[in-house]
User: What shape does this take?
Amino acid sequence: MSDQEDGQFELLSQLLSEEPSGKQSCEQILFAKQAEELKSTNRELHGPQESAYIKVSSVVETRPDTGREQRKGAPEVIFGETKDPAQIIVMVQGLLTSTGRVIISRMTPTKVEQVKAAFKEYTVRICRTSRTMVIYHPEYKRRRTRGGHVGVISAGTSDIPVAEEAVVVAEEMGCRVTSIYDVGVAGLHRLIEPLRDLLADKVDVIVVAAGMDGALPSVVTGLVPVPVIGLPTSIGYGIGGKGLAALLSMLQTCAPGLSVVNIDNGVGAGITAALIANRMAQAREH
Assistant: This one.
């Protein structure tokens, strides 16, 4: 076992051990600090008059996993859809201090502008198609890794936003990504040449995003000698709509080698693909 793994298990042991009564835990201290920062951020965003009506609930705690990327090779990602801008800003501040880079998913245009305004001195990457935002500390240096090669395919143009979510995450994990869009089964001839080129370019793993009947991931899996990750999207209507038929179709596949994430889970697909691809890249070096 490596020293790094020993350290992780030692940390876990400390976290699970009983703490002396009356003594504040590290998490409690961190929360108190975050609550004060949240109040300060609210005042900056809304002004002194409105901030009087914005209260920080005692149940709002955040515990960002700052060691996740070091521990398992996948970064912590903030889910922005259900959080207000002030909460996002406080979480970003904490993660930037410890990791130097923060990925935020499912951001509305309004939230993007508010969060961007709070980090004017930082480098910000915005992918409006996927509603994803990445913020880098001025001193952040991307690790020079020989990441693997991830292919991302979408059945239709409506599936691109979810597919792009996977693209951004895989790129942030150091992978080279090749995208092929709008090659669904309604015009399957469009898939053949791009897929042949992708395989010739030594792709390690392929993410296939599809809504409606969700048939494309099974088709691709039956043709390629690499792992495929099915990414059902919520494109569709009527019975089986909103991604349900696509999800069930992928789960019922006859093609071996297809794994499936949940509906619209582009982040999960991107992380899984990047973990596979980066492991393949490591194997090639040895």
Observations:
- The chain has two domains: 27-57+71-142, 149-285.
